[in-house]
Write a structure and sequence with these properties.
heterodimer, A: nine-stranded mixed beta sheet
Chain lengths: 270, 192
Amino acid sequence: MNDGLSPDDRDRLDGLLAEGAAFGLSPDEAAEIERLSAGRGDVDIEEFERLAAALYVGLGAGAGEKLPDHLRRICADQGRDLLASGPGPAPAPVRPPVVAPPRRWAGPPAWLGWVAAAACLLLAVATWSRPVDVSPAVELERLREEVLTAGDALTVPLKGVGPGEGSSGDLVWSNRRQRGFMRLRGVAANDPSQRQYQLWIFDRAQDERYPIDGGVFDINAPGEAVVPIHAPIRVREPYLFAVTVEKPGGVVVSDRDPIILLGDPAAPAT
Amino acid sequence: MGYNPARMSNSLLRRVSAGDQAAVEEVLDRYGGLVWSLARKLLGDDDAEDGVQEAFIDVWLAAGRFDESLSSEAGFIVMIARRKLIDRARKRGRSPRTSSLVPDLASSETGQAERLERDDEVAMVTSAFRSLRPEQQAVIRLAVYDGMSHSEIAEATGRPLGSVKTLVRRGLMQIREALGSASGLDGRGGAG
């Protein structure tokens, strides 16, 4: 196969992809793969990952094991929520696992001051999230009702702040089911190519500098929207919810983008 | 119509990508144990549940990319899950495992494997793996099956880090070459 790479570059690329499939990649290694494979659509960068996965299956992994029932239920709920939220986003770029630098709090003093004005909140970063297309579908309403009747549902009013002044909503969350929904009213429609909304969940079980990413979402039209919450890790003791405006795709390090909605379970109802 | 596991499994991710919620349940029933075992190996028991949730979210999102001409459904799901779980394990700076550090090449391949879906791709890869030198099999198994990092393998086997990387890299390339030969495709060289 003539893929335009020199033999040395081909060997280097193969080596990086093979090691990446086995161990993951550092950011530098991932960047080198990007460089070597840029513009070469015939380079199959998943090839070694497929091979490693097939080998894992072939060596008999997972035989006789099954998901714990409660975990299976959570995964099923999350899958159904995702499907119910409409057509999925474009597939993410395909590449071996990249080891990102440790998450860090990047908020400078101005950010802290701004957050102080927003309920003494320290908003930081969380993991990458996938956009969730918001749909006011009946199915979402039904799933939201399920959470409401889960027995442990936490219901939190959402208050518009800053640029979100005038908007409102509420949020329901079930720790037991690890799922929840926001119902938003008056939140401005966004152009996903310019900005997206991102939910953050502050959990007493987590360092407050590292709130849990609750998902990136869009508002397609004025009115009411129901947004499923997709927490990538277990939420244990949520004590504050915040929606920010971020660049498309959400952020890894959140800086000074505004909060538009806050939900404090302890706040008195107004 | 007879029962055809391969055909049946190949349709699941397509159904997921088409919005079929029942297919979500079927994927979890069929492949949940596989991902669960992977998460426990890569993350340890404490973090495995969160890892499984992340992994399956990626599986649902990636379902539309499944191409049965490239991999089996089990292989595709494991590939997506491994990527997420390795990323998570390395971000956390740890790589716990539940299996022994000493590879037992014979034990897990006998009996257990027969109970899993075995398609051509998996069988060919496994066959090519078994043709490697024992030391290559050992380090690849520690990396791919047991989820160990290269430094952990170096420590466990007493081999220099560079030697571990080379054995893994060349071993995987040799498997790829063997697959290319078996399927009549160009293996693209590069094996050592």
